[in-house]
Amino acid sequence: MQYMRRRALGFLSNDIGIDLGTANTLVFSKEKGIVLREPSVVAVYNNTKKVRAVGLEAKMMLGRTPGNITAIRPMKDGVIADFEITEAMLRYFIGKVSKNAKFVPPRVVIAVPSGITEVERRAVKESAIHAGAREVLLLQEPMAAAIGVGLPIDEPAANMIVDIGGGTTEVAIISLTGIVFSRSIRVGGDQMDLAIINYMKRAYNLMIGERTAEEIKIKIGSAFPLDEELSLEVKGRDSVAGLPKTIRITSQEIRDALDETFNAITETVRGALERCPPELSADLVDRGIVLAGGGSMIRNLHIRLSAATGLPVFVAEDPLSAVAKGTGAVLENLSFWLRES
After folding, report:
1. Is the CB of residue 220 less than 8 Å from the CB of residue 254?
2. In a 3-state reduction of DSSP, which class is residue 17?
3. CATH number of the domain at 189-257, please?
4. Residue partners of 14: CB distance under 8 A and separation at least 6
5. Is residue 163 within 8 Å of 292, Cβ to Cβ?
6. Could you give the CA distance from residue 106 to residue 12 in angstroms, rounded to a whole number?
7. Which member of 37, 211, 247, 320 has the greatest number of CB atoms within 10 A?
């Protein structure tokens, strides 16, 4: 009888995979592929903590809310910084994509950084259960990214993935469906934005917000000299006069501002290669390194990493979706991964 009930639940539930990122959350439906891609932001009323908006609508409020509303990013460095707000965000996303969630809670695969603690893992699981999940499987982000970009992880050969997200950079060497070596550092897109904010304040006495810093990073950010350097007009507030101010900056300036962040990522990749067994190192000479995550889309980052390691470096075809697609592939063979976990 219990077996029949489990089969009925499996048939009715819409199992989902979640890339619970610091900057963005992506949801993969077993039936339809990626069905949701929204910022990991929640706007709440200060006095009641009642949710005002989630996702894209909430992100539009960052830095623009009246005194009674605060726009919060409940994930920090790839882990939960605010338990209640994360739970509310997950409940909203799960409800939005799972039609039968109220009657048959979905099984959920969630990608998490490889370096998080057991307490942090438990916090993610409990948040998902409280938000409406029936069963939760946590999958290490570099493994999810490797599966998502189509690396042959089941072969007895080295596959190296570097997943640069909003809060963390995950570096892993994978062989025979297992992680041989991994390293997670709390450096990613958020740290790049902060570096740009600090540079603008230091160099021009110009105060800018997160959204403006992200726009600068996307439009003119680069990790290695460009064939033709770019420039951008930036608006903010003069920190001395307190008045609105407009300046023009170049991609060379932003590259210098981000240099420390790029060095941290490069050193982590080099450190992983130094820990790689010789036989697997030989594989990487031909196979190279694959980059995924939003941070991998910074112009010429692959050239900088290739120069630092001497290996070919490739950017995945759809780097932003890699982790979410990996959770989706795991959903297709969930019994195997539950056995492995």
Report:
1. yes
2. strand
3. 3.90.640.10
4. 29, 30, 31, 97, 98, 99, 100, 101, 106
5. yes
6. 9
7. 320
CATH top-level class for 2-143+323-340? Answer: alpha beta
Contact predicate 102/139, CB 8 Å: no
Structure token pair of residue 118: 């057991």
Per the DSSP assignment, residues forming a β-bridge with 70 are: 44
Domain residue spans of the chain? 2-143+323-340, 151-187+262-318, 189-257
The residue to which tokens 């490797």 are assigned: 146
Asked if domains 2-143+323-340 and 151-187+262-318 share a fold, the reply is yes
Q: Which two tokens stand for residue 10?
A: 């499996």
* 43's tokens: 């706007």
Distance CA 125, CA 119 (A): 10
Which token pair is 154?
A: 């089941």
Distance from C-alpha of 162 to C-alpha of 223, rounded to nearest angstrom:
15
What is the three-class DSSP state of 190? helix
Q: 151-187+262-318 falls under which CATH superfamily? A: ATPase, nucleotide binding domain (3.30.420.40)
333 burial via Cβ count (<10 Å: 0-12, 13-18, 19+): exposed
Closest CA to 334 of 181, 115, 147, 123: 147
Q: What is the pLDDT of residues 216-235, one digit of tens each?
A: 999 999 999 999 999 999 99
Q: Which helix (H) or strand (E) holds 271?
A: helix 259-274
* Residue-wise pLDDT tens digits, 291-310: 999 999 999 999 999 999 99
pLDDT at residue number 154: 93
**Rounded CA gap, 258 and 32, in Å?**
38
317, with CB counted inside 10 A (0-12, 13-18, 19+), is exposed
